[in-house]
Automatic annotation (TrEMBL):
Residues 27-265 form the Aminoglycoside phosphotransferase domain. InterPro entries: Aminoglycoside_PTrfase, Homoserine_kinase_II, Kinase-like_dom_sf, Pseudomonas-type_ThrB. Belongs to the pseudomonas-type ThrB family. GO terms for molecular function: ATP binding; homoserine kinase activity. Its EC number is 2.7.1.39. It comes from Hydrogenophaga crocea. Keywords: Amino-acid biosynthesis, ATP-binding, Kinase, Nucleotide-binding, Threonine biosynthesis, Transferase. It catalyses: L-homoserine + ATP = O-phospho-L-homoserine + ADP + H(+). It is an enzyme of class 2 (transferase). GO terms for biological process: threonine biosynthetic process. Signal peptide: none annotated. Pathway: Amino-acid biosynthesis; L-threonine biosynthesis; L-threonine from L-aspartate: step 4/5. HAMAP family: Homoser_kinase_2. This is Homoserine kinase.
Length: 331
């Protein structure tokens, strides 16, 4: 259940009116999601039924939200299918509901595709590249708050919870990523605003066409290649079963071809893709370990399995032998 803050009908109705979104007719709590309170809101405007999503932010504060919401607005107004945050008469897109930060965004059509084929991967790959290009003109700055500095801070915090062999892998990978980040090829990588968490559950499809990307609340300025690696590690690997975490080459090729159809990779990006695939796996192994062993506001977070990303990382190591779930005990 993802309604942590009960929003009174009258408060939601007043907000919709201020946003010129018509008269509220229905307010429905959304069961999915783990971080925020989300409602589907239906209203009548000029004889039309319109649908939006009201999000009350439970963890993110007023200081970080303008970057995420303005990025969504920038992308939406430049033709990237992203839910557009609704503005009031003064142009404000960050609102307050029950004393917490809140936003109202367009409701996307369709549903997530958790078992994507090559066509789904290609559709997302092409849009990811478009999003990167359109983001070049976005003028706000905020780092990826789950980037290298956070990995360096967080690895020592989770190490005591790991088996010796897992701890050795985590330490070695962090050292490798620090080394990569110091290199001239890394410094030459193109950068800009990235989604940084564009997993299968953050994309809606209407048939095989993407109706939109959502959940920009880990976005930040970082290398485009890292964003691509995060996607390849979720869209193009096996989920579950004996071979959980192994890459699926035909899906990866479909994703990459479509991405490069819009924005070809630079030479530095080609060289560093294997290293950044490891970085993407490390990032989510680490955050899942952190959520599992050091739950913040535990009631709000249902931790995902860290073992999956440990397997993705092992499968991305040079000369990696196929890993089996049983060989790598979940942390
Ligand atoms: N703009 C949107 N359009 C349609 N559905 C949405 C939209 N935003 C969120 N949802 C629905 O709400 C669910 C929870 O949203 P999500 O952003 O994943 O929540 P959380 O940040 O709490 O994890 C999604 O799985 C999706 O079904
Ligand atoms: N994609 C991340 C979790 C991020 O949570 P979200 O529900 O806000 O997308 C993971 O799978 O670890």
């Amino acid at each position: 259940m993802a309604v942590y803050t009960e929003v009174p009908f009258a408060e939601a109705a007043a907000l919709l009116e201020r946003l010129n979104l018509g008269t509220l007719t229905e307010l429905r709590g959304i069961q999915g999601g783990i971080e925020n309170t989300n409602y589907f809101v239906t209203s009548e405007r000029e004889g039309q039924t319109v649908e939006h999503v009201l999000t009350v932010f439970e963890r993110l504060g007023f200081e970080h939200l303008p970057f995420y919401l303005h990025l969504m607005k920038h992308l939406a107004t430049h033709g990237v299918p992203v839910p557009e945050p609704a503005a009031d008469a003064r142009g404000e897109i960050l609102h307050t509901v029950q004393g917490k930060p809140a936003a109202v965004v367009d409701k996307l059509r369709g549903a997530s595709e958790l078992a994507p084929g090559a066509a789904h991967c290609a559709a997302v790959g092409a849009l990811l590249a478009r999003m990167h290009l359109v983001g070049r003109d976005f003028d706000r700055q905020q780092p990826n708050l789950r980037g290298l500095p956070w990995w360096n801070e967080t690895v020592p915090v989770v190490l005591p919870f790991l088996a010796p062999e897992q701890a050795a892998l985590l330490r070695a990978e962090l050292a490798y990523q620090n080394h990569i980040a110091e290199g001239s090829a890394y410094k030459a990588l193109p950068r800009g605003p990235i989604h940084a968490d564009l997993f299968r559950d953050n994309v809606m499809f209407d048939g095989e066409a993407v109706s939109g990307f959502f959940d920009f609340y880990f976005a930040g300025v970082d290398t485009w290649l890292f964003d691509l690696a995060v996607c390849l590690n979720d869209w193009c690997v096996r989920h579950g079963g004996e071979r959980d975490g192994e890459p699926v080459p035909e899906l990866q090729q479909a994703f990459l071809n479509a991405y490069e159809g819009v924005r070809p990779l630079t030479a530095a990006e080609r060289t560093l893709l294997p290293a950044l695939l490891r970085a993407g796996a490390l990032r989510f192994w680490l955050s899942r370990l952190w959520d599992l062993h050091l739950p913040r506001e535990a009631a709000l977070l249902k931790p995902h399995d860290p073992g999956h990303f440990e397997r993705v990382l092992r499968a991305r190591l040079p000369l990696a032998a196929p890993t089996r779930p049983a060989e790598t005990a979940a942390a």
